[in-house]
Design goal:
Distance between the termini: 58 Å
Largest sheet: 6 strands, antiparallel
CATH architecture of the largest domain: 3-Layer(aba) Sandwich
Strand content: 15-25%
Helix content: 25-40%
Structural class: alpha/beta
Bound molecules: flavin-adenine dinucleotide, NADP nicotinamide-adenine-dinucleotide phosphate
Low-confidence stretches: none
Number of strands: 17
CATH superfamily of the largest domain: Nucleotide-binding domain of ferredoxin-NADP reductase (FNR) module
Strand order of the largest sheet: 8-3-12-1-2-9
Radius of gyration: 24 Å
Number of helices: 15
Number of domains: 3
Length: 389
């Protein structure tokens, strides 16, 4: 009897993302918080995906349907017009705006087309398109979206097809993986702060973070892929101490590191420095970390709740407390600890780096030149690792 050979299972990747089921969408912040940071669990069963600690998950979002409808109205369209999709294949305007294009931050091509169509009606835009005024254009566009510009220029009309051609492709967003696959073989966990803000009198939503938080219902799937981060792995030697600085959502990969060390029985010392606004409402995974401290798995746990007192206390302030500074120096210099930083790139990572330099200077008695050499050597030896965004 002839039987067909089994079909090979699909190979999932960024090009062919796996449709993952969202198992859990849980608020980590509590009443009284100014944030809405969430814990997500997605099912990877049958994906064939293998991830390591330090990797990120790529998420392909779709846009907010209300914004799609508003744009269709602003274009005086019905949504049923055919336009090129982001792969060039024609699809309905409504579908293309929903899943193919970035429909919030305007492209430069759109600004140029709008200025040209508006003629004398948009003198400022025309001025700002001067290559010498790129900075001013960026400032002008900060917090502005396509919908504002269409409303501000009601006499300008774009044919749906022309509008679609001016849009940029909707890109996936990366999220640090907050679980170890050794502890959760079928799942991947994330820690996400939804981006929400108000500009020009309108409420705005970050595409992917609010897609995860608000728009994945029932059986809907989240297209995902694994983004490998070889440069952000925990130490290979399970006995090597780790110092992890992860304020806010920056704590995500360190939850994964700790899960992995726990499940593999790694004996190295673990030190977590976590920061958020308020202990009562913003201590992300506080119960997990406090339990690890209580049973000694977390050798040290330092928290910096910035808004629990008048003067801000940040993770770098904790690092610089005399006993902590001495211990950090001992861990990194005498015991070969790896030093990790994850979270905000703009301010936190720079300030933490400055604090580390201060420790090397004061505890190690080094000159500015030697500090630079010392930290460079740590980076080269992959003992000072950052994943900042
Ligand atoms: C390696 C890596 C790991 C990451 N890990 C995490 C993680 O674990 N958790 C997490 O939450 N995020 C993480 N991020 C950030 C994440 O990828 C997204 O950038 C974030 O969620 C925002 O995406 P979004 O699509 O929701 O927002 P977008 O639609 O991309 O909107 C964000 C944009 O909105 C604009 N904007 C934001 N605030 C304002 C404001 N107040 N006024 C005016 N304009 C504003 C800015 O232009 C900003 O770039 C990571 C990023 C990287 C690169
Ligand atoms: N690229 C993007 O589109 C995007 C999207 C989302 C988030 N992010 C980044 O991800 C970061 C994480 O966001 P999050 O909401 O989880 O946490 P967060 O904003 O980093 O806040 C976490 C803690 O860090 C404190 N903090 C502020 N400035 C600091 C500094 N210079 N040094 C050390 N700590 C500092 C905060 O205090 P106070 O608040 O009291 O000052 C708070 O207690 C954001 O800061 C943002 O830069 C980027």
């Amino acid at each position: 009897m002839h039987t067909d050979p089994p079909l090979p299972s699909p190979v999932y990747s960024r090009k062919n993302p796996f449709p993952a089921r969202l198992l859990t969408n849980r608020k980590l912040t509590l009443d009284g918080s100014e944030k809405d940071t969430r814990h997500f669990e997605l099912l990877l069963a049958d994906s064939g995906y293998v991830y390591e600690c330090g990797d990120s998950l790529g998420v392909f979002p779709t846009n907010c349907p209300e914004l799609v409808e508003e744009l269709i109205r602003a274009l005086h369209a019905s949504g049923d017009e055919f336009v090129p999709g982001n792969d060039g294949v024609p699809k309905l305007l409504r579908a293309a705006l929903f899943s193919d294009y970035l429909i919030t931050q305007p492209s430069k091509q759109f600004i140029a087309a709008l200025a040209e169509k508006a003629g004398g009606g948009a003198p400022l835009l025309r001025e700002l398109l001067d290559p010498l005024r790129t900075g001013d254009l960026e400032k002008f566009l900060w917090g502005m979206e396509y919908i504002d510009l269409l409303h501000d220029h009601p006499s300008v009309r774009f044919a749906p097809e022309d509008f679609a051609k001016l849009l940029r492709k909707l890109q996936p967003r990366l999220y640090s993986i907050a679980s170890s696959q050794k502890a959760h073989p079928q799942e991947v966990h994330l820690t996400v702060a939804p981006v929400r803000y108000e500009t020009h009198g309108r409420r705005r939503k970050g595409v992917a973070s609010t897609f995860l938080a608000e728009r994945v219902h029932d059986d809907a799937r989240v297209p995902v892929f694994i983004h490998s981060a070889k440069g952000f792995r925990p130490p290979e030697d399970p006995n090597t101490p780790m110092i992890m600085v992860g304020p806010g959502t920056g704590v995500a990969p360190f939850r994964a590191y700790l899960q992995e060390r726990r499940v593999t029985g790694a004996l190295g010392k673990n030190w977590l420095l976590f920061g958020e606004q308020r202990r009562a409402s913003d201590y992300l995974y506080g119960e997990e970390f406090e339990a690890m401290r209580a049973d000694g798995f977390l050798t040290r746990l330092d928290t910096a709740f910035s808004r629990d007192q008048e003067k801000k206390i940040y993770v770098q302030h904790r690092m610089l407390e005399p006993e902590n500074a001495r211990e950090i120096w001992k861990w990194i210099d005498a015991e070969g600890a790896h030093f990790f930083v994850c979270g905000d790139a703009e301010r936190m990572a720079k300030d933490v780096d400055a604090a580390l330099q201060k420790i090397v200077a004061e505890q190690g008695g080094k000159t500015p030149e030697q500090i630079a050499e010392y930290l460079e050597a740590m980076k080269k030896a992959k003992r000072y690792k950052r994943d900042v965004y």
